[in-house]
Amino acid sequence: MQELIAFNEQRAEIYWWMSSLLARELTNEDLEQYYGGEMYTFLSGLGMTDELKAPVEAFREAITRVQSREDAQLELAADFCGLFLSTPKSGALPYASMYIGESGLLNDKPAQEMNALFSQYEIAQRKEFNEPADHVAIELDFLGNLIILANQQDDAEKHEEAMQAQLSFINEHLMTWLPLFVKECNTRDKFGFYAAAVNLLLAFCQLDLAFLQGEE
Hints:
Layout: H1 2-23, H2 28-35, H3 37-47, H4 50-67, H5 72-84, H6 97-100, H7 109-121, H8 136-151, H9 156-174, H10 178-188, H11 193-214
Helix pairs in contact: 1-8, 1-11, 3-4, 4-11, 8-9, 9-11, 10-11
């Protein structure tokens, strides 16, 4: 059980990391961390899993390209804005409603469903991130909290229910639109840093699904 708790903590940390990466532009301080040894060690650990080896290597190559980029922070911030803060015609907007909503507008059914889940599990959305609840960063942050919720269950049946809730969430609230979002990022992100990041995210979600299905 202790091994599963530790593994769940690692899973949550990966989702929270991806959430922070897709929530806002990276600062110079953030970039220094990406260039550092801890990130190299972290990514090397992820890359030891066969399913993640190729996307991890692609992301590490993207980090290397960032390091050699003139005005790296400003250029990467411009990439972020062009992708995630623009329009559906020119960017890859990070909201589920833009891909599987019925109206083509923000705050469609996927956002409403996320708000209901926040209430159901009594998980608070981060106040400093004032975006619709179906933003990819919010969904990933929620998933990280859902994973930790499983660790807090002493009863075996409730623990299993919490694990199954993660499986349902990834299937019904992430994988329904994440591949479409990733495809748009691959098309729109000319430099490729964020495209590499979301490709890694998608590969991790697919790997995580296999783990959770094995828990059944």
